[in-house]
């Protein structure tokens, strides 16, 4: 099996809109299912050759299908992706602000949905995919994404209400530990009003967002611990990430990832990054970005 992963620091014009960009290519895989896990970012994928085969979406009412370029909204259930024997593409992690600025819709419009990029973005989607597929190197592919998304960022798209944006920042900045009541009081809204506006904007309620952020932190810490060769201390991981105990962590993992932590690690083993420095990173993890321009 061969694996190639490369992180790219997005152009400064995309700061706050694109959290990270990763190019990936793997061959010789044993056909399996990859779980696209809940995270605080929307996912935009541009495949380089084979389309993405989605066996199940976070929204169980959405039928399976394949797509050359897609965007997925925030969700609380895993997407199941058939990897086949190879996969290659560019994954772009968008912030909710990036959804508004680059896609022209609030993240809430894509809750639990995986949609063909052209259906959301329109004409620029074809240019984006064509340029990425036509480029002959990773720097050229990243430059194409920077260029197309950079032009989209110049549009005068309306932003979210400042209170909603602040509530999101409080939720993510506290790693999902700040009580919803505290978030509501801080932004000056009732909990009910915050829940309505927050859910409409992001597609997740404040409580769901806190769960997803906490899970994302725990998943990254688990991957880092295994990469260092440390024992998998789930009790310590639970305590450090703000769960009541290991049983709480495991329940949340089952609901958000579809598997408990150790089974998830085993199931995703062959899709882990193969580089020696960071063997347990996933495409969606995004190590410290390295500019390739």
UniProtKB/TrEMBL annotation:
<keyword id="KW-0805">Transcription regulation</keyword>
<dbReference type="Pfam" id="PF12833">
    <property type="entry name" value="HTH_18"/>
</dbReference>
<feature type="domain" description="HTH araC/xylS-type">
    <location>
        <begin position="180"/>
        <end position="267"/>
    </location>
</feature>
<dbReference type="GO" id="GO:0043565">
    <property type="term" value="F:sequence-specific DNA binding"/>
</dbReference>
<dbReference type="InterPro" id="IPR050204">
    <property type="entry name" value="AraC_XylS_family_regulators"/>
</dbReference>
<dbReference type="GO" id="GO:0003700">
    <property type="term" value="F:DNA-binding transcription factor activity"/>
</dbReference>
<dbReference type="Pfam" id="PF20240">
    <property type="entry name" value="DUF6597"/>
</dbReference>
<keyword id="KW-0238">DNA-binding</keyword>
<keyword id="KW-0804">Transcription</keyword>
<protein>
    <submittedName>
        <fullName>AraC family transcriptional regulator</fullName>
    </submittedName>
</protein>
<dbReference type="InterPro" id="IPR018060">
    <property type="entry name" value="HTH_AraC"/>
</dbReference>
<dbReference type="InterPro" id="IPR046532">
    <property type="entry name" value="DUF6597"/>
</dbReference>
